[in-house]
Design brief:
Length: 237
């Protein structure tokens, strides 16, 4: 009996070699990392600008819109921030006391202003740390930025927690009435600057988590010889 002759392996016409297919997947992965990294950097810059607005705007607390019935003096109307109090005596131009130019926050909110300032420093330092892509590996830079953003979010969370505890102050009583107390705004309510600060805490947590994920993905999925390529692509974006 004749032994069956083994057939040669079939070659599929048009199928790319495994090396080319691996290189294609690697290129697509690098492009995805670059796109997510650019999005993360843009969101980090937006978060830094938001921190500046939160610090300088006198709109952490404001009076509620109420109708004065004409009995007794009209209650004051205005807003309050960390550095100044604005009362609407001559509408539409409010009369403000204090300001960021003096670098002196309101006495009752000094600790809150310091915490927001540290948070602002941390997030802008993370933005400046992006220049380290030229000198360090991308994973190291992402981890540095992640820890800085976690610090910014932690300081901002402490500031948002201490701010209502400081409402029992002369500035708050003059604007919001004698019913003001800790965590009780009296005739006032929180305004958009305080709400932006609360959203900033969530933003910092999301950005830090994304930075950690980007750092770990690069170390785990990219081969050693492609890390330099990824760093160059991130810098060119």
């Amino acid at each position: 009996m004749k032994r069956p002759v083994s057939e040669p392996p079939r070659m599929y016409v048009g199928a790319p070699p495994l090396a080319d297919l691996s290189r294609l997947y690697q290129t697509e992965f690098v492009r995805s990392v670059r796109a997510v990294g650019v999005l993360w950097a843009v969101c980090s810059l937006c978060f830094a600008i938001l921190q500046v607005v939160v610090l300088v705007q006198p709109a952490w607390v404001g009076t509620r819109g109420s109708v004065h019935l004409g009995v007794g003096p009209a209650p004051p109307s205005g807003t309050l921030g960390l550095f100044e109090v604005c009362v609407e005596l001559d509408w539409p131009v409010p009369e403000c006391r204090g300001g960021l130019s003096s670098l002196s926050p309101l006495p009752s909110f000094q600790s809150v202003a310091v915490l927001v300032g540290v948070s602002l420093w941390a997030v802008w330092t993370s933005i400046l740390s992006l220049s380290l892509f030229r000198f360090c590996s991308a994973a190291t830079v992402y981890k540095i930025c992640a820890w800085l953003q976690l610090t910014a979010g932690f300081c901002l969370a402490l500031a948002c927690l201490l701010f209502p505890d400081s409402w029992e102050s002369p500035e708050m009583r003059a604007l919001c009435g004698d019913s003001v107390g800790s965590f009780s705004p009296g005739n006032c309510s929180v305004h958009w600057a305080y709400i932006l600060a609360l959203l900033g805490i969530l933003d910092a947590a999301i950005l830090a988590t994304l930075a950690f994920v980007l750092a770990n993905r690069q170390d785990a999925l990219l081969p050693p010889d492609s890390k330099d390529v990824t760093t160059g692509l991130l810098m060119s974006a």
